[in-house]
Specification:
The structure is a homodimer.
Chain A: E1 2-6, H1 10-22, E2 26-30, H2 33-42, E3 47-51, H3 60-69, E4 76-80, H4 85-93, E5 98-101, H5 106-117, E6 127-130, E7 133-136, E8 141-144, E9 147-149, H6 153-164, E10 169-171, H7 172-179, H8 190-204, E11 211-214, E12 220-223, H9 226-229
Parallel strand pairs in A: 1-2, 1-3, 3-4, 4-5
Antiparallel strand pairs in A: 6-7, 7-8, 8-9, 10-12, 11-12
Helix pairs in contact in A: 2-3, 6-8
Chain A binds a DNA duplex through helix 6 and helix 8.
Chain lengths: ~240, ~240
DNA sequence: GTGCAGATGAAATCCTGCTGAAACCTGGGG
DNA sequence: CCCCAGGTTTCAGCAGGATTTCATCTGCAC
């Protein structure tokens, strides 16, 4: 789950980055509106945290409007020190999806971000499910029939992202873009390595390989829920 | 849909022009940055395809920057042979809207151009259907009565392309241009080979031959949906 | 601080099966 | 009948995914 923070207050920005990283978000940070638009135009963030007060020309409202003009529909959460109703209206008119008044509790920011990132899912619950496999996004834990599977943050991030898009081909590049941040340099086989690790850990837990590999240029992986839906009270067979 | 191509490689430029014209674009072609800015300033293109490497002074980045300085906001898709992150960053800073690394398949260029110009027709109809056969574009998967058919990317690309133009003669040359890179050198019988592979795999899945062969020069194949529409609840017979 | 354990990432190697080239087969048209 | 465009089969090469190994990093306990 990749988030862009647009915030010029270094202290606040650093705190947000740390906190969100600890919660499993992949964080990119920019300090003004121009950078924000550039970053959002080239990277498909899952959500954007946008401070209304920004240095240079253009405040958060104009940034938000510009994003929408460019057909970038990434959910935006606006941060503001002002508590006027008119600001709220202005923010929503500019295309923001949610609104948070400073000062705020980190836990509230977190809750709202989670809500925004799972908006497009049919089921609004915080748990992704497929067959015996359950992924609790808030607790950041995967379980099989109630038994925890020890996945690391990155592994869970990839699994989560793929489970968000069932029966859809997700390219390695897309995974890189959503699970690593901008200072990650592509060109390695890290995604393949992690896919392998996830498959192995799930296999040990009794879950069959949930990912179809699609070879060739533009290939990638596809999470196929039906692979896990098979009624399987029996022990996994060989093969 | 009017597109400006800025490309000095004559061979590539000609291929792009032909292919895009065939897709209904109105194509203008220039070979250097100065011309490009002149053309874009006088004509309201719907989208610009801009090669990074250009003859004379000024590369694609500077052209893009100059366009934005002149408040020309036409969506720009950059073509580059380089895949470095720094180029990507430079491109976005210059104001490009998308990015494609050479060599690319024509179909991908087309998809991205459509995405950039998408506001009038939403051909994001994710699934192509004919009789029992279904092709899910998002999943990049073909199924017959829900059962997946193991097609490779190339096979699926050809099937998809033919299904996009039902009851229409598609020449071997057209298929080559859409499914292979622009630097693919024609002259083999590869298309015939792939058509054969698709027919065989579909046949195994219980789908009759969906392609009519048109012999002779200028011949090719025609996807005929009615061949698949026959009511067939019966199991495939031996054969 | 030091030491430890797990997580992450880089790199080398293995291996699968896709791709494309080539040879050969078939059937329709003259 | 012959000709030849298209169909079919085969096979080697290799792209690229899978796997393994190792180095580094980070957080934590002491």
């Amino acid at each position: 789950m990749r988030v862009l923070i647009v915030e010029d207050d270094r202290r606040l920005a650093a705190a947000l980055r740390r906190g969100l990283q600890r919660e499993g978000f992949v964080v990119d940070l920019v300090e003004d509106g121009e950078e924000a638009i550039g970053a959002a135009a080239f990277t498909p963030f899952d959500v954007i945290v946008l401070d209304v007060m920004l240095p240079g020309e253009g405040d958060g409202f104009t940034v938000c409007t510009e994003l929408r003009n460019r057909r970038i529909r990434t959910p935006v959460l606006m941060l503001t020190a002002l508590d006027a109703v008119s600001d709220r209206v202005q923010g929503l008119n500019a295309g923001a999806d949610d609104y948070l008044v400073k000062p705020f509790a980190f836990s509230e920011l977190l809750a709202r971000l989670r809500a925004l990132t799972r908006r497009h899912l049919d089921d609004r619950s915080a748990t992704l499910r497929a067959g015996d496999l359950e992924v609790d996004m808030a607790a950041r834990r995967a379980t099989v029939r109630g038994v925890p599977v020890a996945l690391t943050m990155k592994e869970l991030g990839i699994l989560e992202y793929l489970m968000h898009h069932p029966d859809q081909l997700i390219t390695t590049e897309q995974i890189e873009e959503h699970v690593w941040n901008y200072d990650y340099v592509s060109g390695s086989n890290l995604v393949e390595v992690y896919i392998g690790r996830i498959r192995r850990k799930l296999g040990v837990a009794g879950v069959p390989n949930p990912f179809a590999t699609v070879r060739g240029g533009g290939g990638g992986y596809r999470f196929e829920p039906q692979r896990l839906s098979a009624v399987s009270s029996a022990a996994p067979e060989s093969g």
